[in-house]
Structure formats: structure tokens, C-alpha cells
Amino acid sequence: MKATALVAEDEAVLRDELCTQLAALWPELRIIAQAGNGLVALQLMERHRPDMLFLDIEMPGLSGIEVARQAERGMHVVFITAYDAHAIAAFDRGAVDYVLKPYTTARLAESVRRVQERLGRAPPVLDSVLREIAAATQRREYLRWINASSGAEVKVITVDEVCYFQADSKYTLVMTGEGEALIRRSLKELTEQLDPAHFWQVHRSTIVNANAIAGVSRDFRGHVYLKLKTRRETLAVSEAHEHLFRQM
User: Fold this and answer.
1) 156 in the same domain as 82
2) What is the distance between the alpha carbons of residues 190 and 219, in angstroms, rounded to a whole number?
């Protein structure tokens, strides 16, 4: 009998990418159900009773942790998370595994290998592990607005207005649909303060708001560029970050 899996991820593009990579890494695996929120994931889990669950930790309705609490003893769990802070010791004890978003083939291959090794054994009781993970994955507050200089004026810009941030010497450019401004904050600082579910580093000098992306294109050399909804310029994506847009 082929092993079966449920994949629950609220971002459709990332869910499709995960399923595609799983099919390539584990051709014998049968993905019998997909869900875009926790409530549907719970219903599908109870209906299909898969061997393993790939669960996004943060989903509408119910979190992946809440879904995992309802899992039967025979189900193995792999959590999907955008935040390094979630990769705590509980994962490394082997009770459950995790994959960081955006997915890399190498890390997903490691998770597949670990799950394959555990398939012949009953999963451990997860109660204490899930409590520890839940405590470590409390929703944190991310940057919501910034003060930025535009000429002699200081503007208050919400992060939702930002199309992208770009490093510029000692400053960082804040690019919105209406213009640009400057802040004295490094990209490294911004990376730690912005919600990684919405702000993606696409180049060593650029962080883009995923909601500002209109489309993706390639030049004749195969290099990836992003088109924006409210700005004319395109953004170059470095090779190290092209996997973010593989399915787009």
C-alpha cells in the first residue's frame, strides 16, 4: 500500500509547489487531500485518515497545531512554518518535523527521509511536544508602520503601502505606489521586524511586499524579474531566491 498524505497550507501557490516537490521527491506517496484552512484540514483528516500530515502552523480557522492535536496515533506530522523561531528543540527530538517557508528542495528531502524512516513505527504521543511548540509560536507583533524622510518632510507609511525596500548606501529606500522615501534602518533589521509571510527577500539588496507583485517574467538568459502592481520598474530576483517563484 502506498503511503498517503494530507497537505494543509493556506497559500495556494505554496501549497501547489509543496505538492509538486513531494511528488518529485517521493513518487510513491499519494496526496489524497489538500486544504486551504484548518477547519477543512480537520474534516479531510477525519474523512481520509492519512498516514501523514503536512500542516501549516498558521492557518485561518484552526492552526496546524490545533489540527495535529486531533490526529490519531497512526499519523505522522510535518509542520510548515515561515518563522525560524518556530524551529525549536521539540522538532529536533524527532517527534515531529518541520519545513521552513519558502521551501527548499534539500530541506524538504530531509523531511521526507525522516518521515520514511518513521513510517514503520507508531508516532509518539504529541501532547507535550505540541504544548511546547504552541508556546514558542505565539503570534508575534511585526512592524506595522515606519517614519520615513521624503525631502524635508517626515512621512508615516504603513507597511501595507510599501511595494519594496531597497538598500541604498547608509540608507534604505522605501518604495510605495506614490513615490519613495528614506529610512536609517538596514535590510537585516527589516528582515527581523517584517512579517516573513508577506515580505520576501528576493535579492541581497531588496525585500518585496508579496501583495505588491503583479507577475513574474524571465529574460532570454532565464533570469527572473518581478512586475509590480503600482510601479513601472521591475525587480531582479537573485538565483538564490528564484525558488520562491518556481510555480508562478
Assistant:
1) no
2) 29
